[in-house]
Write a structure and sequence with these properties.
By secondary structure, this protein is of the alpha/beta class. Helix content is about 60%, strand content about 5%. The chain has helices at about 5-20, 30-60, 70-95, 105-110, 130-145, 165-175, 180-185, 195-210, 220-230, 250-265, 275-285, 290-315, 330-335, 350-370, 375-380, 385-390, 390-400, 405-415, 420-440, 445-455, 465-470, 470-480, 485-490, 515-530, 535-555, 565-585, 605, 630-650, 675-685, 690-695; strands at about 100-105, 120-125, 150, 165, 190-195, 595-600, 615-625, 660, 670-675, 700-705.
Length: about 725
Amino acid sequence: MAPPRRVRAAARAGAREALLRAVGAGADTLTGTDAVAALRTAYRDEVLVLAAGDLAAVVEPDLPVIDVADVAAQLSDLADAALQAAHAVAVAETGAGGRLAVIAMGKCGGRELNYVSDVDVVFVAEPADPQTTRLASRLMRIAGDACFQVDANLRPEGRQGALVRTLDGHVSYYRRWAKTWEFQALLKARPAAGDAELGAAYADAVAPLVWNAAGRDDFVADVQAMRRRVEEHIRPDHADRELKLGAGGLRDVEFAVQLLQLVHGRTDEALRARSTLDALAALARGGYVGRDDAANLAASYRFLRLLEHRLQLQRMLRTHLMPTEDDTDAQRWLARAAGLRPDGRRDVVGVLEAEWSRTVLRVRRLHEKLFYRPLLTAVSRLSVDSARLSEKAAAARLAALGWASPEGALGHLRALTSGVSRAAAIQQTLLPVLLDELAGSPDPDRGLLAYRRVSEALAQTPWYLRLLRDEGLVAERLMRLLGSSALVPDLLVRAPEVLRMLAAPTAGQTDELQRDPADFAVALRTTVARQHDPDSAAATARSLRRHELLRVACADLLGLLDTEQVCAALSEVWVAVLQATLHSVLRATEGPVPARLAVIGMGRLGGAELGYGSDADVLFVCEPVGDASDHDAARWATGVAETVRRRLAAPSPDPALVVDATCARKAGPAPSSAHWTRTGRTTRAGRRRGRRRRCYGRARWRATPTSAGGSST
């Protein structure tokens, strides 16, 4: 069996020859009504053959299914052939001697044409005189009477502009006067008929203008505003039924893909595809769009185009509207024509409604994620040289941004972007923007080194680069943090999940960076309580403390917490760690418990004023239980206190946790009796001044293991 591509090429050539042969092109070319009738018959024959092949699998499931993209491409090729035949007839009728090229635009240009659609074109002529204008007008009339409406309103100045222009005239207009939407339309421009050499010259001349358009002021905002205007002009009673223009429709896919192409295609020629699906695949390969997002968007686009084609085939009318909710017969017909079947829980109408709703929601979600991605605006503002991030461009950019060590920075950039991996491709896109963000931080050199360390440490974390690419605020905040703190990158490589907190909170949700520390303390104690041995409990407590410490540091550096809130949060996590660890040690204690034990926070811990590297100044207080002596109680409590201190101070990559009991009456951690604590503070208060008095002045109860000795004293 011949490869599909070869089969499609043969079909394309066959359709072209059939239409040209129908009008006698190249020999005795037909003119007038005879030409129109012959072209109409040949065109409809070809459409009928294509539609039969398209629908065959609906009737006979064993027959091959033609992909909707192939159907659209064949319809576009058929339109090219019809335009070429109409051009031959128009030349025979007018006798024009000038050169005329027909440039396909829109869906035809992208080889994505529907069964029933206008064909958008632009005419290029040499010379652009009355003869070539008459030739173009006649071509439009012939094709319109025989096959489809030909729309030339995408030409410079629209319907008010000249129908034909010279190549220089087109280029001059686009350089001086063209609006953003015109460059977006030119993205799909393709020579379709007429003078092939002139058409190719046009394509070569406008391509650089198209791929530099994203550097225009407010380019991204203009494209986004244009999409919103399209939605605003939809009839209210059609908004929920629009396959093409409505929210979650075809235009959402096309606008998102085209904007990504125009912004990133300046520096990546692989993205310069005319077809939406081809461009989406290239965006996925280059790392500009996540693989899953691209696959979901492509599947949704194919489904929407399939529904559009089936609706148009029903009566060969141009329509993009789904049937109304109360028109069950029309819904059933569409579902069956699209090849849907009952799924055992729902009939075919229910399956159609469910699939349609799911597709619309998925397209809209992905559209908003990609189309309003902050990275687009940032990349569009860079010059082409800066955005490309070649070594020469990077060196110049680093020097301009004031890097203290450009050579060292270049080494980091080489390490991050070398190779052909997907991660390297995403870094190529991200780094020009990230350098701008880093340049405004206190220490950009250290920040870039930290970014390299974090990126290498998280190289196997699949969502890391995707998060930076898709969430502009995360990238912006991360650069500020890495360029401001040595602690943050050290913590981040062991608690990367905190990165997700840097994203803007969704509507109706609180900012996780500003959550109540008390909620975290409850979660920590609950989680540690589920551990079965003290070693696991202490490790879990330290791991959770690392997470909270990083959250507080991020919120602090980003200005989301004031100094008092930072100190209170750091104190809260220390207290929670102490409580959880003490409880785990006591749970593992065998035999009778001879005392009640409490931990009293002293100094900064007692005043809830801890810093990031503060020790926990505490006083362990015990009281005998039952017949136990003071000596037995103190010996038992000393063992517990030592175990707590040892487990928290064990070597670990996490920040150290030092429990300091030197504020107590005796040196070292030995617990004091409650009797001494009460009497000692009164009888000796006048003699003991200085440090111990200050410690006791801030004393606060911080932990009592009620499960091992009752309430606090």
